[in-house]
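Task 17 of the worksheet. Students: predict the tertiary structure of the chain below and write it out as C-alpha cells. Keep your answer in the requested format; marks are given for formatting as well as content.
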Amino acid sequence: MRLTLTLLIAAAATLVAVPSSASYATGTLNLRVTVPVLSTLVQCPAEVPPDATDCRARSGSALIRGLGRVSERYTWSYRLGPPTCDAGLAKPLATSGRLIVAGKGEIQFALELGSRCIELEPVRNEPQDFTITGGTGAYEGASGSGTVERAISSGSGSETWVGTLSVPGLEFDITPPTLRGASSKTVRAPKGATRVRITYQVTASDAVQGKVPVTCRPRSGSRFPIGRTAVRCLATDSSGNTGRASFGVTVRRAG
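Model answer:
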C-alpha cells in the first residue's frame, strides 16, 4: 500500500525556570501534529485486555518541528458491548505506545480509556486523551498530555496529536536554518539558444547543527529556458525545522 504523507504543524517552545537551586530547566513543546498512519488488523498482544474485541497495529511517521523525524508505534483496541458499554456500542480501550525520534530517543505515552460508548462503525476514529509517561535518550523524564484525534478509513488515514511535551534539561530547537546565496540573476542566451545552463550556490547554516544540506528546484546546473524561472530552495535541520528561500533566474534572448 502506498501512503501519501501530509503534515500540519503548529509548534512553539518555551523554557520554564525551575524555582530551586537546580541547574537545569524544563523545555516545553506545544504540539499540533498530523501523522499519516496505517492501521492493520493483528492478533491482540498479551498486554491488551483479554476481552478486547479487535486489535489494530497503528504506525506512522512524520517530520515534527522541534523533534525531527518521528515514528509512532502502538496497538489500538476496542471492546464491543458489556461490561464497558451497552450491547451494540463500543469504546476504545486504554493502551500504551511510543514515539521514536530518529537518533535522539523515545517518548512513551499512554492512551486513556475512551470517554464514551458509540456505535461500532465510527469507533476507529474516536478521540482519546493521552499522557506522556517518560522517555529515553534526550527525552528521559518526559511528561505532558493532550488528545489524539483520528481520521482513518480502510486501514489508513491520519492521527492528529494536540497537547504539550515537557522534558527536564532540554531546550527544544524550533529555529529554522538560514539560507544564503538565493539572489536573483539575469543572463543572456547565446545567439540561437533557447536554453542556458546556469549554476548557482545556495548554502544553509543552523544555530544548533551548523551546516545543513540545501535542496533547490530547478537545481544548479540545470538548463533554464528563455524568460523568468523561479528557483525554490529549502533546508531542514535534524529537529524538523525547515528554512526556505526563493529567487528568480531570467534568461534573455540574444540582442
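Marker's comment: The chain has no helices and 20 strands. The two ends are 54 Å apart (CA to CA).
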